[in-house]
C-alpha cells in the first residue's frame, strides 16, 4: 500500500487529503465504496497516479 510505504498513518493521510480517516480505513479494507474525487485527493496527497491506488 502506498500509504504504508511512506510511513503515513491513516490520520495523516486523512488530514492531507481532506478525506475522513473512517472512509480511508473502509476503502483500504474494501468495505467502503469511494468517489472518484476521493481517489484523486488521496492520490494527490500520496503523490502517486490514481491508477497506482487501484492495483
Helix content: 55-70%
Shape: globular
Write the element-wise H/E pattern from the N-terminal end onward.
HHHHH
Flag low-confidence runs: none
Radius of gyration: 10 Å
Biggest beta-sheet profile: none
Strand fraction: under 5%
β-strand number: 0
Number of separate helices = 5
What is the mean predicted local confidence, pLDDT?
A: 93
Head-to-tail CA distance between termini: 9 Å
Structural class: mainly alpha
Describe this structure in words.
The model has no long low-confidence stretch (mean pLDDT 93). The radius of gyration is 10 Å and the shape is globular. With 55 residues, it is mostly helical. Helix 2 crosses helix 4. The longest helix is centred in the last third of the chain and has 11 residues. It is 65% helix and 0% strand.
Q: Can you give keywords for this protein?
A:
mainly alpha
How is the secondary structure organized here?
Elements: H1 2-5, H2 10-17, H3 21-29, H4 36-46, H5 50-53
Short structural summary:
The chain is mainly alpha-helical. 65% of the residues lie in helices and 0% in strands. Helix 2 crosses helix 4.
Amino acid at each position: 500500500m502506498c500509504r504504508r510505504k511512506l510511513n503515513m498513518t491513516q490520520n495523516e493521510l486523512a488530514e492531507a487529503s481532506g478525506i475522513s480517516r473512517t472512509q480511508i480505513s473502509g476503502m483500504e479494507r474494501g468495505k467502503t465504496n469511494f468517489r472518484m474525487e476521493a481517489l484523486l485527493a488521496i492520490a494527490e496527497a500520496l503523490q502517486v497516479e490514481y491508477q497506482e491506488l487501484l492495483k
